Amino acid sequence: MTTKDFTTTILVDKTPKETFDAINNVSGWWQGEIEGNTDKLNEEFDYRMEPYHFSKQKVVEIIPNKKVVWLVTESELTFVKKKNEWTGTKIIFEISEKDNKTQLRLTHTGLVPEIECYGGCSGAWTDLIQKSLYSLITTGKGKKIF
Description:
The protein is α+β, with helices and mostly antiparallel strands. The protein has helices spanning 16-24, 118-139, and strands at 6-12, 33-36, 44-49, 53-63, 67-77, 90-98, 101-109.
């Protein structure tokens, strides 16, 4: 059996740099509280959406205008039995060019259909990337999703 990590993709009429900068402006598109640096290698930041979600991310890879990778080092999801389902997963943003546009692909490795939060978390990621981050990249302002 092959495990399928969650992924979603958008195309924007903006440059890879504009897309990269928007990804790293985490508080501009990911609703909730962000504490810490989100845009430098080996930096850590906390994400909190009370009372449902807490996670700590470490920036483990950053290639300007091409790729950003966060390792989730801690997590507590209050709406599932296994509260630390996200711990040890990676959130990967890959930027490429496609059809004279910039393509952004988000892959959350470890967010697979076999875990309890897959349905809710994959839906949230889809809205955050396709609506809020898309809006931040294209208009300069993220959309409130939750």
